[in-house]
Design goal:
The chain has 328 residues and is α+β, with helices and mostly antiparallel strands. The protein has helices spanning 3-16, 35-45, 48-55, 57-60, 63-83, 142-145, 151-166, 189-207; strands at residues 217-222, 225-231, 236-243, 249-255, 259-265, 271-280, 285-293, 312-314, 323-325. The chain has eight helices and nine strands. It binds copper (II) ion.
């Protein structure tokens, strides 16, 4: 199976696994953490990180702040995991609340694992489903995200739906720590908020929000072909182009879950600009551009009409190297 065929097969599986109220995702599906992963996450979370969420509660659940604040909060854990050798968990997997809670670590002794300072969750959730309310519908698919009036409408709706999941474990007057300000001390908080953040990222891509991170990177050079990449987000498409009058050409383009790739021939000119034009599901477009100097160009700039006595010229200081003979 070729590399590209494998990628297509993976994407097909990926898409099928998200048919339930989710048309696509920027994060892998949460299937549980290993014991070592659980221990590492708890090492980061328990103590000041839980306390930070409690103290910042008024600010971090204020409408406009809710989604950006929690994105940074998740990124803190992701950066920690990457530095500690757990980059397989970056980006953090997302738990769709319509999926069962995995009956595997991170959960111990039939309860959701939690920090020592947080009250224990009652047992009985492993391998079980909860009522996932509107996450079961198509409310947050790429096309439906375009029906919100604006960011405020979207953010307030998502926050309200998110609240219902935090409260889904409560029974009558008996509340669980998952519906408290200390909820980050329950491990399920992290893949759950990764799922919420994923919907936020989909919204940003569908509407081409100005804060959506877009950048073109040079990947590799193979003789006469150069490869570039730009981030891939679901709910958006990319078309590539190169600005250059000397007919540099795009040879191939493809994508993985994380990136759009493009390979081009850029033999003929000293500089060129690569453009990636994003179009979000809601119809907006945005082009990011980056200029490069071609590594293929090595000739120094020569005078266009050399004086007659300069029939031979060496461009380097020692006058022995890089010499050219002019045909006059
Ligand atoms: Cu929350």
């Amino acid at each position: 199976m070729s590399y590209k065929t494998k990628i297509l097969a993976m994407m097909l599986f990926f898409n099928l696994s998200y048919m339930f109220g989710q048309d696509c995702s920027n994060r892998p599906k949460f299937t549980g953490f290993s014991q070592a992963e659980t221990d590492k996450i708890m090492e980061y979370v328990c103590g000041p990180i839980v306390q930070f969420h409690v103290e910042e509660m008024p600010a971090n659940h204020f409408l406009e702040n809710f989604l950006p604040w929690h994105r940074e909060y998740i990124q803190g854990l992701e950066e920690f995991l990457a530095n500690e050798g757990f980059s397989n968990l970056v980006p953090l997997p997302a738990w769709n609340p319509c999926d069962v809670i995995p009956d595997s670590p991170p959960f111990q002794d039939s309860i959701l694992t939690n920090c020592p300072e947080v009250d224990a969750m009652p047992p009985g959730y492993l391998g079980e489903s909860i009522d996932c309310h509107d996450f079961e519908t198509n409310k947050y698919t790429c096309s439906e995200l375009c029906t919100f009036d604006d960011f405020e409408d979207f953010a307030s709706t998502l926050q309200a739906d998110h609240d219902r999941i935090h409260n889904a474990f409560d029974e009558g007057d008996v509340v669980t720590p998952f519906s408290s300000p200390q909820s980050p001390g329950i491990l399920l908080f992290w893949p759950w908020h990764a799922f919420v953040d994923d919907i936020y990222l989909k919204y940003q891509a569908a509407t081409l929000d100005p804060d959506l991170p877009l950048n073109i990177e040079f990947v590799s050079e193979d003789c006469c072909e150069l490869t570039f990449r730009a981030p891939r987000y679901c709910c958006s498409e990319v078309t590539w182009s190169i600005d250059n009058p000397k007919a540099n050409s795009i040879i191939d383009d493809w994508s993985t879950d994380d990136y759009w790739f493009m390979t081009a021939s850029v033999l003929s000119s000293p500089g060129y600009t690569v453009n990636a034009s994003y179009t979000g599901t809601c119809g907006n477009s945005k082009t990011v551009s980056r200029s490069f100097i071609s590594p293929m160009v090595t000739l120094p700039t020569l005078p266009t009409s050399p004086p007659l006595h300069l029939q031979d010229i060496c461009m380097d200081d020692d006058e022995k190297d890089n010499c050219y003979v002019f045909q006059i």
